[in-house]
Amino acid sequence: MTTILVTGGTGTLGRLVVERLRADGHEVRVLSRHAQPYAVDLREGGAGLDAAVEGVEAIVHCATSPRGGDEQAAAHLIAAARRAGVPHLVYISIVGVDVVPLGYYKAKLAVEKLIEESGLGWTILRTTQFHDLVVQLLAALTKLPVLLLPAGVSDQPIEVAEVAERLAELAVGGPAGRVEDMGGPEVRTFPSLAGAYLRATGKRRPLARLRLAGKAYRAFRDGGHLTPRRAVGKGTFEDYLAGRFGSESKR
Question: Where is the NAD(P)-binding domain (predicted)?
Answer without folding.
Answer: 8-132
